[in-house]
Amino acid sequence: MVTLKGEHIYLRGLEPEDLDYIHKVENDESIWELSNTQTPYSRYLIKQYLEQAHLDIYEVKQLRLVISDYEDNTIGLIDIFDFDFRNRKAGVGILINDVEKREKGYGSQALSLLVNYCFVQLQLHQVYCNISEENKASLKLFTNQGFQNVGLKKDWNFVNGTYKNEFLFQLINS
Question: Which of 63, 76, 97, 136 would bridge with 80, disulfide CB 3.0–4.6 Å?
Answer without folding.
Answer: 63
